[in-house]
Amino acid sequence: MKRILIVDDDVNVRTMIRHFLEKAGYLVADASNGELGLELCREAPFDLIIIDIFMPEKEGLETIREIRRDFPEAKIIAISGGGTSGEFSYLSLAKNFGAMRAMAKPFYREELIQVVKELLGQE
């Protein structure tokens, strides 16, 4: 069974994504910030990590960079409900930091599951 980590400071978002993924048959863990997410990654590897960009303590871009450095095989999806200023997008920047995909909140369950399956080679 594929293991997925959700890193988001919003408990409602974590709960919703967890529900979507568990219903689709994945083993899911979650963390409320980047530091806790990194600790979980060090305890046991994850097949895919979903990371919010804007979080307290350790924000998403820094977390993505550290995961990419320490776990180069990890597949990462960056998510965010904001962070666009004109031509500049934090989701685009997340790809430069190592995220394989970037999704703007809110997103549909079907959209998330499709991206997860693509990244895990399950299509």
Explain what you see.
The longest helix is centred in the N-terminal third of the chain and has 13 residues, at 11-23. The mean pLDDT is 91. Helix 2 (34-43) runs parallel beside helix 3 (60-70) and helix 3 packs parallel to helix 4. The protein has helices at 11-23, 34-43, 60-70, 90-97, 109-119, and strands at residues 3-7, 27-31, 48-52, 75-80, 84-85, 88-89, 101-104. It is built from 5 helices and 7 strands, in the order E-H-E-H-E-H-E-E-E-H-E-H. With 123 residues, the chain is α/β, with parallel strands linked by helices. Strands 2-1-3-4-7 form a 5-stranded parallel β-sheet, with helices on both faces. Strands 5-6 form a two-stranded antiparallel sheet. The chain is globular. The protein has a single domain, classed as Rossmann fold (3-Layer(aba) Sandwich).
**How is the main sheet built?**
5 strands, parallel
Q: What would the CATH topology be?
A: Rossmann fold
Work out the count of structural domains.
Answer: 1
Q: Structural class of the helices, strands and pairings?
A: alpha/beta
Mean pLDDT: 91
Which spans of ≥5 residues are poorly predicted at pLDDT below 50? Answer: none
Quick structural summary:
The chain is an alpha/beta fold and 123 residues long. It has helices at 11-23, 34-43, 60-70, 90-97, 109-119; strands at residues 3-7, 27-31, 48-52, 75-80, 84-85, 88-89, 101-104.
Primary descriptors:
123 residues, alpha/beta, Rossmann fold, 5 helices, globular
